[in-house]
Amino acid sequence: MRRFLLVAALAATGALFVPAAASANGAPYTGHQYDFGGTVTPINGSISTVDSIANSITASTQATEADVAAHRAALPYGDITPGAGPALSLYPGPAGVPASNQYSVTVNGQPSFVYKSLARKTDTNRELDTSWTSFSFAGSVTVSVTALGQTGLTGCMVRPYSAAIATTFANNTCTFTMSRAKNVSVEFEPNIHNPILHPMLVFANPPENDVPPATGDPNVLYFGPGVHTIGSGVVLHSNETVYLAGGAYVQGAFIANGPVDNVTIKGRGVLDGLFMDTGDQDANKNQPGMIDIADQSSANLLIEGITLVNAPRFNVRALAQYTTIENVKTMSWWYSTDGLVAGNKAVVENNFVKSNDDSIKLFWGDEVVRGNTVWQLENGAPFMISWNLEQDSNTFHVYDDDVIHAEHYQIEKSAIFRALHAGAGTPNRYLFENIRVENANWRLFYLTVENNKWYDPTLGYGELDQLIFRDIHAYTNFTHPNVVAGIDGTHKVRDVNFVNVFTENACQSDASDFDIDPATTNAVRIVKSADGSCWT
Q1: Beta strands at 506-507 and 521-529: parallel, antiparallel or unpaired
Q2: What start and end residues bound the annotated signal peptide (predicted)?
Q3: pLDDT tens-digit profile of 62-90?
Q4: Which of 429, 504, 514 minimizes the C-alpha distance to 468?
Q5: 445-449 and 482-485: which strand pairing?
Q6: Model confidence pTM above 0.85
Q7: Quick check: 14 pLDDT over 50?
Q8: In this structure, which long-range contacts are made by residues 507-510, counting pairs with CB atoms below 8 Å and at least 24 apart in sequence?
Q9: pLDDT at residue 4 tops 70
Q10: pLDDT digits (tens, 9 = 90+) for 130-167
């Protein structure tokens, strides 16, 4: 571990940038820039270079969002806007699938079926299971969640905090009102900190729209309520819609053998991969993903609304151009179960990811990632920036996301924002802003170029360039310092900007909570708004 020592004196006169007019959570800023060789320069004023990069990323991804929406509109069943109703849709429990013995749920006084998934990597998982229920609604609903057979409960809460959902608690029951669609965690005091042994999730969906018919369209693969066992090799075809109705429980996996275009996978049903689980970490790496579209020449893909559980490998790999992943829910237990990764030109929004490998991989570029909620298990990262990338992936706008838990406790390089970059590419132009981190205490940032056992160093190394972390709020403190380091003086981590990052009960403006390697980094800026408005 290399903690940056202030080996160079601060510049004797002047500031790095020209002052500008004050604005909330904006300029003028105060802080420091850390450059190659150990030079440290104070910042008092604007950071126009950083603002210019951020504005460029935002403009590019807004154009990408419009392109993705235009392609999605061409899909036969591609409308993702909320439907007109009904006011409440509850889904039957599939015959043969046992209800959770941990919780029961009512919505507007009517029972909503509660599923349960058991922990699978029991040597490292600290949770025992996860329960969840799913319904769709318009307007508002009252939800009551009862903890069954649990003693000593004193209250309850709903995460994420940003949902601003007030609760009441009586007789082991947590009651609250929801007036908009949201995927949330219901937690019972005192067990509201990691590890929560029996998580309970509520997936409150918007009303469905653009639902395909059960019969009559030869390009629709329709799964109605009940259990369907289809196996791991279901091949996807161009111009196909796969629909999982609420109450459908599909034991299967979908794969594209080569490029596919104009594919929709949607609904309110469940896709279960438990039948593929070997019970062994290494053997599971040979299993297919739950939804696997790996050919990057594919185009126009929508995955919307469904829930994926018990994936032994990754959940959704959708590498098509012009991809939308909307309101998808994943729950998985193994080190090899990534959550979501989309291809070039993508919108990934309003999803709930509970994974034990990387939850959201940011690997292909021209991507909008917003409104997502992440519950990270002990491995992986909520936001993985690079893992041996060979290409110069660029232009990501990641914003308005919540990390409600990160259960890191034993893997040294774990972090909320993570890059372990050993590839020859130079990933660049990442803008993270308005990210909230609630229950995590290991590390916030780990941003490095470094070798690992999965990479051949003879292929060469790239760099990391132009990363902006702006308006990041961590509600808890961390036991491990943030790390920023390249691998040598020509393969650096450079132009990394921490702007109004609130952690350790303070807004950061210097490297006191960072390990920055002066021999392998350049232009690392840590600043806060001078008016004291950093997320206060």
Answers
A1: unpaired
A2: 1-20
A3: 999 999 999 999 999 999 999 998 999 99
A4: 429
A5: parallel
A6: yes
A7: no
A8: 507/532, 507/534, 507/535, 507/536, 508/31, 509/30, 509/31, 509/32, 510/31, 510/32
A9: no
A10: 999 999 999 999 999 999 999 999 999 999 999 999 99
Q: From residue 64, how far is each of 213, 298, 459 by CA, in Å?
A: 31, 17, 32
Which two three-digit tokens encode residue 294?
Answer: 């790996």
Q: Which helix (H) or strand (E) holds 433?
A: strand 428-439
The yes-or-no verdict on residue 522 having pLDDT over 90 is yes
- The DSSP call for residue 66 is H
**CB count, 10 Å around CB of 39?**
15
Q: What is the dihedral of CA 223, 225, 229, 235, to 10 degrees?
A: 20
Ordered alpha helix ranges (H), 461-531: none
Please say whether the dihedral angle defined by the alpha carbons of residues 508, 509, 510 and 516, taken in this order, is positive or negative: positive
Residue located via tokens 């390009």:
219
Q: Which two tokens stand for residue 524?
A: 């690392």
Three-state secondary-structure class, residue 282: helix
Write down the pLDDT at residue 234. Answer: 97
Rounded-to-integer distance, Cα 189 and Cα 147, Å: 11
How many Cα neighbours within 13 Å face the side chain of 139?
9
Q: How many Cα neighbours within 13 Å face the side chain of 170?
A: 3
For the chain, report the end-to-end CA distance as a whole number of angstroms: 31
In one letter, which amino acid is 463? E
